[in-house]
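Message: Just now I want nothing more than another pair of eyes on a protein record. I am handing you a single protein, as its sequence and its fold in token form. As I understand it, each token names a local backbone shape. Take your time, and here it is.
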Amino acid sequence: MREFFGPVRHGPDLRPAGRAQEDGLVVARRIFGLFAFFPCLSAARQWARCCLPIIVAALLPEASGAMADPVAAPAETPARVVAAAETDAEPLILDELPEVLKPARPRTQEEEDRLKALALYSAARVKEQDGDAAGALKLYQRALRFDPNAATIAEAIVPLAVELDRHAEAVRYALKIAELGDADPLALRRLGVFLAEQGDWRQAVRLYERAIAARNNESPDAADVVMWMEMGRLYHLAAEYEKAAERFAQVLEALAEPEKYELEQPVRDAILGEPQDTYNLIGETFVMAGRPEEAVAAFRKAHEIKPDEALLELHLAQVDARTGKAAEALARLEKAFAGKLKADTAAPYRLLGEVLKDLGRQDELIGRLEKLHAENPDRAPLAYFLAEHYFIAQRYDKAETLYRKLLEEVPALPAYRNLAEIYRKSGRHVQLLEVLGEAVAKTGGLDVLGEAGEAILKDEPLVRTLIESARGLIRDRPQDLGYHGRLATALVAMSAQQFEAAGEFFDLAIQAKPDTAGEVLLTWGLGLLIAEQYKTAAVVLRRAIDHPDLAEQRATFNYYLAGALEMDGQTEEALAAARKAVELDSDSPSFRSRIPWILYHAQRRDEAAAEYKKLVDDLEKENGTPQVREVLRDARLVLSNLAVLAGNMSEAEEWLEQVLDEYPDDISALNDLGYLWADQNKHLEQAHEMILQAVEAEPDNAAYLDSLGWVLFRLGRFDEAVVQLEKAAAIDEPDPVILDHLGDAYQGAGSVEQARAAWRRAAEGFRKAKESEKAAAAEAKIEQQSP
């Protein structure tokens, strides 16, 4: 991925060890390189006089004795200072202590943050020069958080993240660079290509737009045309047809005047790819964007390249249908079908249905589809479309026959869903079991059945009947209910919380196909865990661990067993299982994180904190994989919570800062840090901005709304605070903390009666939660406001 971002800009210091100081010039260059942060040269010089010695001493102690004052050297040097410098045996002693500078006014928060960013950037440059890429990356990331508009810092982060193989991190910060508007257009294009290949179409096209803006209205060239084409495709995939049409129109203009854009023939060929398909795609985009004339021109160009009368008639029918010419559209569709249209999707038949509906002749649809199917029996999209309309019309016998035939030839999810619904409604339980088994065989579960599956699971009498029918088949005709049918019955029983029956059929599934024991036992055990049947889950998972053929999966089974045991209150046994999982597979970060999680869940907080810190230290050395980074993120979030519970707010903030260094848009960390700041009445404006991001991402999250209300309260915006806290309190059963905050906000807004009512509810909630001190505090507020 490095080619998308370019090489690392700074390498390690490769000087010989004997020249490490080199008259302080290296340090000077490092520091003076920071003057780009200052608005003018005079400000930079003033900073150099006042702050440079302090920062060098604090951040670069090894250079403090070797670096000369770059602003003014003394005319005379005391002998004892010279002697100390020559022998390096004593510390530097000044004849006169420097005068303490007294600022004319206190620094603003913005100035404080900028100074911190500067110091962190300096330290990062040093670490990068010394070859500590991971250390430099951390410092650059923190520096950017203090000065989020500093493109120089952001640009330093991306190559280091690439060097460390932390590609997702590189992408996150490359997007930050794009937001700042100072990025190199070529780098933005390359990153757009990368994101498009990863399937992130919306972000890719966003970067292409930034790349265009970064060119500052320069004359477009061949590279721009290639980018327009890609943007058109991406906008089409994202169903943003008007934007796609705008870009495609630019491409067509360029192809019409290739000399103007320096489009050589190989480039034109690359842009068009398969020309007929490309022009048809452009035509369809113009149709969807409401540009019919351009659509017709594109379709005719495709036909000119590779004549296909039936396909052209279909496309022109699309244009007619979009422009309100239903009769003309129907006539063109009839020509297309008569011309043996080669359709590999249901789109032409769907268009036929829409046109007939516009003409008030929808009753003709099934008859027309039957005629087309008789003429083209091998076209699966047509057959599925006809079967769907049989089903909609409740002509279940015809739908069943056609779906059964299709499942033998071209199986697809609609057949399973609709057959399940047909058999459910008609009470044909054996056939329903059969189709459920087929669905499990093809997809591995029952989720694909959608609403039809939900209707089965909600029908308790039906579930009982299915279980009894399955038992009857096992007893009388066991060959008629094979592995997948038994597994489907087990899954139905599990979802309906018929746990005993579920276990019976999971066992029967293993009997039918012993080599699936590991998969079945894991499915069974996890199902019980999800259903909060922890004790039974532990029994099943232990059975898997003891199975002689499942030795390779024992680490996984121990991992889940540890969770089941802890949730069942068996902490020591859970820890033993978790340690066994790590012993069997020490490379898994998830397995290693289970031990501290158990301690955390068991409220053994000191032990949990120690284990989580050890996990962070160990995993941070490993650096790379996304799984490692995610486990580190989760560990830091838990450590922050543990620090809050221990009353150590500065440590809690630092863990959240570390999460945001790597994941600057992590809404959970943004909310939590913003709330901690608001609770301590500091950094309120920044806290407000951070919490707003979280609320915008999840507007119905009660915790985030509470944070927003609380920071608004701290800002003295009481009426706005009430609005947000009322929203939070209206979501499910409100947390007593939310009610307590709401009472405070009501009081601030002058609504004393409402404040007392909210505090009263908060006190009740705290007492239920056995938090007597908080309850007493809420009651004290009520007393204080009593008449």
Observations:
- The longest helix spans residues 109-129.
- Confidence is low (pLDDT under 50) at residues 1-87.
- The chain has 42 helices and no strands.
- The two ends are 69 Å apart (CA to CA).
